[in-house]
Amino acid sequence: MPASSITHLPITKVSRVVSTEALDALAIEEPLEIRLEHGTKENRQVQNISVTMRTPGHDAELALGFLFTEGIIQKQEDIAKIDHCFIACAENKENVIQVTLSEETIPNLRNTERNFYTTSSCGVCGKGSINAIRTVSAYDHQPQIDNFINAELLHQLPAILSRHQKVFADTGGLHASALFTSTGELLLVREDVGRHNALDKLIGAALNENWLPLNKHILLLSGRASFELVQKAAMAGITIIAAVGAPSSLAVQLAEEFNITLIGFLRNERFNIYTTAHRILITEHETTH
């Protein structure tokens, strides 16, 4: 049975000086422990890799996307199976997921000392050093395929995303990541209480479909664009990122480094282009000083 993303709790609603009793819909937030089984047939081992606070649903995609964007695995074929820990776990079975690697796959575990405990608001908190959060994308040395989108089409994307944010519509409490084609076709939407989890779910789903690298797509973020989200997008080969909210200075710096077009404040028929502006096709230009 699919995990529920919503719970209902009794609350007291107050309007001016009048109170009423009601049921309110809340987004569920629960821990997910990601375990990795790897090694040769004679020397299999299970290692706890991460605990993240997430909204239940699409857990396998979340685990797959996390392992890929952290550089622990390189491709979908590295995975033999992904299952919730229904047999080996005595309790919290729905909140433990085990990723089993093929015997031929050697995971990159150099960064597992980074203390992968991630809250719903911060996915890089607790990592061992600044160098530990630098990105090495699997697609750095592939031929550059340029990607373009019309500015008028770009304005339409937030409204399209909003119509597909099902849990947010009920709770008002989730972030979303969406994947579009350059012609504005919506391919994927994933929601989560953590913005980094929503993107990991999206990238994990795309990895399952063998769509990577995503260099012909547009990533839309429902909130701000942090360094970590740009880092994950770079790992997936994404070349255009548009955020409804603001980018951080480090996000802009990383986007510049990886030749990513970064857009912020995409709302109300306006947006700012922070890096690599040539990919956005604009019909009229006006220079102001």
TrEMBL record:
<keyword id="KW-0963">Cytoplasm</keyword>
<dbReference type="Pfam" id="PF02634">
    <property type="entry name" value="FdhD-NarQ"/>
</dbReference>
<comment type="function">
    <text>Required for formate dehydrogenase (FDH) activity. Acts as a sulfur carrier protein that transfers sulfur from IscS to the molybdenum cofactor prior to its insertion into FDH.</text>
</comment>
<keyword id="KW-0501">Molybdenum cofactor biosynthesis</keyword>
<comment type="similarity">
    <text>Belongs to the FdhD family.</text>
</comment>
<dbReference type="GO" id="GO:0097163">
    <property type="term" value="F:sulfur carrier activity"/>
</dbReference>
<dbReference type="GO" id="GO:0005737">
    <property type="term" value="C:cytoplasm"/>
</dbReference>
<dbReference type="InterPro" id="IPR003786">
    <property type="entry name" value="FdhD"/>
</dbReference>
<dbReference type="GO" id="GO:0006777">
    <property type="term" value="P:Mo-molybdopterin cofactor biosynthetic process"/>
</dbReference>
<feature type="binding site">
    <location>
        <begin position="265"/>
        <end position="270"/>
    </location>
    <ligand>
        <name>Mo-bis(molybdopterin guanine dinucleotide)</name>
    </ligand>
</feature>
<dbReference type="InterPro" id="IPR016193">
    <property type="entry name" value="Cytidine_deaminase-like"/>
</dbReference>
<dbReference type="GO" id="GO:0016783">
    <property type="term" value="F:sulfurtransferase activity"/>
</dbReference>
<feature type="active site" description="Cysteine persulfide intermediate">
    <location>
        <position position="122"/>
    </location>
</feature>
<protein>
    <recommendedName>
        <fullName>Sulfur carrier protein FdhD</fullName>
    </recommendedName>
</protein>
